[in-house]
Design a protein that fits this description.
This protein is an alpha/beta fold. The chain has 9 helices and 10 strands. The chain has one domain: TIM Barrel (Alpha-Beta Barrel), CATH 3.20.20. Helix 3 packs across helix 4 and helix 4 packs across helix 5.
């Protein structure tokens, strides 16, 4: 399986590859820049070459990127919206340079302007960005969210609406986050609930749109709309929900990425969560 975790790029982008191998990943997620700052230095050719070279020589099959949490395409504040749009464009360009196939992003928050208006702004932003990146191989993946505050994307209908509004929907996909979906009210703990959740997703969006899955247990309960990740089996979803997902043949080739708490030793924490996940696999 393509299974792994979000890993640090401290010391250089290429360091993420060896760190992923040390943890035992076959898939990793990274930031391609400092996620807490707007400013970014352009990638140098030697950086790009070293990253791709190390990746090709490694046991890491899949690399996924996540954008900066500063970005908000749903905001009605024009200055922030424009800044966010430009920042996402840069992140997409960096992924294309690094041959990373997927860039995961949160659709953003409407900040009191209403969900419909927020979703329209997100879709329009994608159109603007895609018009500037013809022929790109990297796809933007809209992540399901928990629905905290005025966040968009906590209903599958939100993602379906965005895909309906954009001019090139084939260039977009979805990242399904287990903690976020559960906190948003989608049941994953029972066999009936699990199947109903993905049947609903398939009907509204299509399972083929799920390109990456974030594996996170939830500190808070079903429908809490609180985004708090927990270690696998240590939260409200529990092991049963992850057993369904780990043994679902529909996702056997889908990169599954941990974003669980790292604790005092990130390597030890990630290794343990991966061990737990692999123990759920049925022969």
């Amino acid at each position: 399986m393509l299974l792994g975790s979000h890993v640090s790029i401290s010391g250089g982008l290429h360091k993420a590859i060896s760190l992923g191998e040390k943890i035992g990943c076959t898939a990793i997620q990274i930031f391609t820049k400092n996620a807490t700052r707007w400013k970014v230095k352009p990638l140098q050719e030697k950086e790009i070459h070293r990253f791709i070279e190390d990746w090709n020589a490694s046991s890491i099959v899949s690399v996924v990127a996540h954008d900066s949490y500063l970005i908000n395409l749903g905001t009605p504040k024009e200055e922030l919206h424009q800044k966010s749009q430009e920042a996402l464009l840069i992140e997409l360009q960096r992924c294309e340079q690094l041959t990373i196939p997927y860039l995961v992003m949160h659709p953003g928050s409407h900040v009191g302007s209403g969900e419909e208006n927020g979703l329209k702004r997100v879709a329009k932003s994608f159109d603007v960005i895609q018009a500037q990146t013809p022929g790109y191989q990297t796809k933007i993946l809209i992540e399901t969210t928990a629905g905290q505050g005025t966040n968009l994307g906590y209903r599958f209908e939100h993602l379906a609406n965005i895909l309906d509004m954009v001019q090139e929907p084939e260039r977009l996909g979805v990242c399904f986050d287990t903690c976020h979906a559960f906190a948003a009210g989608y049941e994953l703990r029972t066999e009936e609930g699990y199947h109903e959740t993905f049947e609903t997703f398939d009907r509204l969006i299509g399972l083929d749109r799920i390109k990456v899955i974030h594996l996170n247990d939830s500190l808070k309960g079903l429908g809490s709309r609180v985004d708090r990740h927990q270690g696998i089996g240590e939260g409200e979803i529990g092991l049963k929900g992850f057993r369904f997902l780990m043994n679902d043949p529909r996702f056997k080739s889908t990169p599954m990425i941990l974003e669980t708490p790292k604790g005092d030793d990130p390597i030890v924490a990630d290794k343990e969560n991966l061990r737990v996940l692999r123990s759920l696999l049925q022969p």
